[in-house]
Amino acid sequence: MHLLDTLRPAPGLRVLVTAGASGIGAAVAAAFRDAGARVHICDIDAAAVARFIADHPGTTGSVADAAVPADVDVVFDDVRSALGGLDVLVSNAGIAGPTGPIESLDENGWVRTIDVNLNSQYYFARRAVPLLKASRAHPCLIAMGSVAGRLGYPFRTPYAASKWGLVGLSQSLAIELGPHGVRANAILPGTVEGDRMNAVIAARAAATGASVEATRQAYLDKISLRRMVTTDDVAAMALFLCSPAARNVTGQAISVDGNVEYL
């Protein structure tokens, strides 16, 4: 088989997607399921987990807070029961965190952002790695970061700090796990179309007194391609990274953002 014929993951991969019931996580989980993978999701939103499973027959799920180690332990008990092992971890859980100058940020907001965005990556990786080492199906760990993991982000320092930390963790794990045949990469999405971004734009417009249209254009003007990305763009990159075609791609922080020039 020619390498160019291997651009999609092999069917039957056992995949865990954290925060997989909505947004980017749901798009990634659905894409793997449609590609023939066996998919387990976890999410803090029980109703959203139930909806995803109902909409995607054959998937399984757990209700969990990714920042709570005991919850993560339950997820892996469920993964062993549902999948019998693991070939791919997509560690996607994350929150926006507080906004404001560093001297006025609430300490609890800072701690919660680091807990969800960075510490959860550790909690899931430490439980997933033994299973990934045992896999014989091109095992792969994907950490879902942000363009804020390569650019400074004023007034969003907790978020940026967590995403830069995530990149360092991924690149370190690539070195650590490479001799075991496990690849580790980070995906850095940019400005993602959807209800969440619409709400951000509306809130910023209200705060600044600018129109919603002008505020949206200001976001687009920071992007070289002058367009936002979609959750499907991010899901496509995740599929590629878990395909045989990406067998030598590891230790990378790959932006899917149309080239955001600054934040």
UniProtKB/TrEMBL annotation:
Keywords: Membrane, Oxidoreductase, Transmembrane, Transmembrane helix. The keyword Transmembrane applies. The chain crosses the membrane at residues 12-32. SUPFAM superfamilies: NAD(P)-binding Rossmann-fold domains (SSF51735). It comes from the Bacteria. GO terms for molecular function: oxidoreductase activity, acting on the CH-OH group of donors, NAD or NADP as acceptor. CDD domains: SDR_c. InterPro entries: NAD(P)-bd_dom_sf, Sc_DH/Rdtase_CS, SDR_fam. The keyword Repeat does not apply. Belongs to the short-chain dehydrogenases/reductases (SDR) family. NCBIfam families: PRK12826.1-2. This is SDR family oxidoreductase. It comes from Aquincola agrisoli.
